[in-house]
Design brief:
The protein is α/β, with parallel strands linked by helices. A hairpin with a 5-residue loop joins strand 12 and strand 13. Helix 21 packs parallel to helix 23. The longest helix is centred in the first third of the chain and has 22 residues. It is globular and about 85 Å long. It starts with a helix and ends in a 5-residue tail after the last strand. The relative contact order is 0.08.
Length: 644
């Protein structure tokens, strides 16, 4: 469902961007969306909102035009929309007022029935005159103080004399009159927003997101950061990003390359309240598995039967593993090795899987049997005599049965059906999820969703990799079925050392060695260090950045007898060199020529080396997607500091 929600946002963004291009309106990716673009090349996996920003003039013009020209399916929300009781200081485009399960809506927004939105933040001018800016801030803070005091009251008609006196002072200071009553708070919010935009962007050197700037003193930047943009890859599209993205992110988040999965300004996932509302109304969730009482009853009966007539453990058992995709095998590797070492007859039967979509339409079949390493002896899943052999144990790793709208398997391999052809069905989750760092970690919610799946209900044993995950499974399942079921779930769900991620001979990504050697040419066989530099560094530091590049080249050139250095300019740097200051551009081009003439160095202007990341021995340079990939692939990374 999260991917459906993301896809709905990208559809909305396409329409927003089209309107902006037609009317020469500038917009920029911001906040979590900007981090995702720079660090992940798409959505942060645990993020679910979409943020862009505009300078105030463009912001006002955008919403004026959007009301007339955006497709009629969209609802436009700004502070002026008093009829919608909208009170945010940012604008928002949403695709519906409520859950919409109609086929037309689902087809338009990739199968997502929930309200999808894009947040648009206005950036306002900051007075160059410090005293004038200070007076503006103090004035708006007094209004906010009065607003917050009133909003905390149970009744708008019961003001204390102190609040009323404060209101009168605010009215006099700003030459306005507020109507006492239901519209009071909204009138105050409109005034606050008016003061936010008091300094025209055209007259300011700096711009800020005012609510954050006033509260925390941050989210303020030189206006030049938002005068031009570059296109950066985001999932299957391109986003508008400030060329000064590194400075923006560093200012907002510090070390934005550091992973944090907690926090956020709303519940996670963003549509959870709608999901719960739909489940409450229908009695189940039609878009993902909701615990089935009949399946639970059958599982309890099977459990009681095994308690009364325990299955006698054999010295040598027949055990069948039913992996699905080769990249998910690692979670089964440890258990497979255990059973093999104990001398059991073990069969690995990769299940064919099929593409499918949210309508239930089944597409292409995938048979990955040949991709599994030879030592597993993978067999044909369709030729094995399950009923005749009746394996002592069957091990599965896909929890969804019919409830996955990305890929599916033949119904014979659903967990409820496999119970008929084995004495013990064991489920090991195919996703190797990190343990949550705290109760606010978004992994908690993901694990809870994985706990409520058919395989968990139907299997005789569920093997998890940690006690923390077991606690979350138990909390979720006992919460759904009642405290009296605790003993049932506690015996079913275990922690196993063999369920953790294991090393195997399966490489999720291996580049072609011959092509790599061809790329290196005369430097074949040497260790390779990559020096990666970005448009953001060049824009932010100018000639100082080129000085750094030249110092790095000098140091590297002193060691090229022992290694090869790949100089890799960010693709966005090469594509946007025309926006760089003329003097800086000339110096950069001269630097590139020097690299090309330096023995032991390769200048990779076309970024060909990015397809061989697995063969790099070290990374030096700027933050971003490439650095993140190196970290994930356990390649040593050192981030550049221009000031050193």
């Amino acid at each position: 469902m999260m991917k459906r929600y993301w896809a709905g946002q990208l559809q909305m963004l396409a329409d927003i961007d089209k309107l902006c291009r037609e009317h020469d309106i500038k917009w920029f990716a911001e906040y979590g969306t900007l981090i995702g673009t720079v660090r992940h090349g798409g959505y942060i996996p645990w993020d679910d909102d979409f943020d862009i920003c505009m300078l105030r003039d463009d912001y006002e013009r955008f919403f004026e035009i959007a009301r007339k020209e955006l497709p009629s399916v969209y609802i436009i929300l700004t502070l002026n929309d008093i009829e919608n009781e909208y009170n945010n200081f940012l604008g928002r485009i949403v695709n519906s007022h409520a859950i919409d399960c109609s086929k037309e809506h689902l087809d338009l927004f990739s199968g997502c029935p929930y309200t999808v939105g894009v947040d648009i933040f206005p950036m306002d001018g900051v007075y160059n005159d410090a005293e004038k800016e200070k007076e503006r801030q103090e004035r708006v803070r007094r209004i906010i103080t009065a607003h917050d005091a009133i909003s905390e009251k149970d009744s708008l008609g019961e003001y204390t004399n102190e609040i009323e006196s404060l209101l009168i002072d605010v009215e006099k200071e700003n030459n306005v009159h507020f109507h006492r009553g239901k519209k009071l708070l909204h009138e105050m919010e409109v005034l606050i927003d008016k003061i936010f935009m008091e300094c025209p962007v055209s007259e300011a050197d700096n711009v800020a997101l005012m609510p954050f700037y006033l509260k925390y003193g941050n989210h303020i930047f030189p206006k030049k950061y938002f005068q031009s943009s570059i296109d950066m890859k985001f999932e299957n599209t391109m986003l508008k990003v400030s060329a000064y993205y590194d400075r923006i992110l560093s200012s907002n988040y510090g070390n934005y390359m550091e992973i944090h999965k907690s926090g956020g300004m709303h519940e996670y996932p963003i549509y959870i309240s709608q999901e719960n509302l739909l489940k409450e109304k229908l009695g189940h969730n039609p878009y993902r598995y909701t615990l089935d009482t009949n399946e639970l009853l059958n599982s309890v009966k099977r459990y009681m039967g095994r308690m009364l007539m325990p299955v006698q453990e054999k010295e040598k058992m027949t055990i069948v593993f039913l992996p699905c995709r080769v990249k998910l095998w690692n979670t089964l590797e440890g258990l497979w090795r255990k059973y093999k070492s104990e001398g059991h007859e073990v069969h690995v039967l990769p299940i064919n899987y099929y593409d499918c979509d949210y309508t239930g339409k089944v597409g292409e079949m995938h048979d990955e049997r040949a991709l599994f390493p030879d030592y597993l002896g993978a067999e044909d899943c369709e030729k094995f005599d399950y009923a005749g052999i009746h394996p002592d144990k069957i091990v599965i790793q896909v929890p969804y049965d019919a409830w996955n709208t990305a890929f599916t398997v033949h119904e014979f391999f659903y967990s409820g059906n496999l119970l008929n052809v084995t004495d013990e069905l064991i489920y090991v989750p195919c996703y190797d999820i990190d343990d949550p760092v705290d109760d606010d970690d978004k992994a908690c919610r993901c694990i809870e969703i994985l706990a409520e799946q058919p395989a968990v209900v139907n299997a005789d044993k569920v093997l998890l990799k940690s006690e923390k995950q077991r606690e979350l499974y138990l909390k979720k399942l006992i919460g759904l079925t009642g405290e009296e079921t605790r003993a049932f779930w506690e015996q079913k769900i275990e922690v196993s050392d063999f369920a953790a991620e294991q090393e195997s001979d399966i490489d999720t990504f291996t580049s072609d060695e011959g092509e790599w050697n061809e790329f290196l040419g005369k430097y074949e066989g040497r260790k390779v260090v990559v020096y990666y530099f970005s448009i953001s560094t060049l824009m932010e530091y100018g000639e100082k950045a080129v000085d750094k590049f030249e110092r790095a080249l000098q140091i590297f050139s002193e060691h090229t007898d022992r290694m090869t250095v790949l100089f890799v300019p960010q693709d966005y740097l090469t594509a946007n060199l025309d926006i760089v200051d003329g003097t800086v551009r000339k110096r950069y081009i001269a630097f590139v020529d020097k690299v090309k003439d330096t023995e032991g160095c390769i200048y990779d202007e076309e970024n060909r080396s990015l397809q061989f990341i697995d063969r790099w021995n070290g990374y030096y340079g700027d933050s971003g997607v490439v650095a993140r990939k190196c970290v994930d692939m356990k390649i040593p990374v050192m981030l550049e500091d221009v000031n050193v």
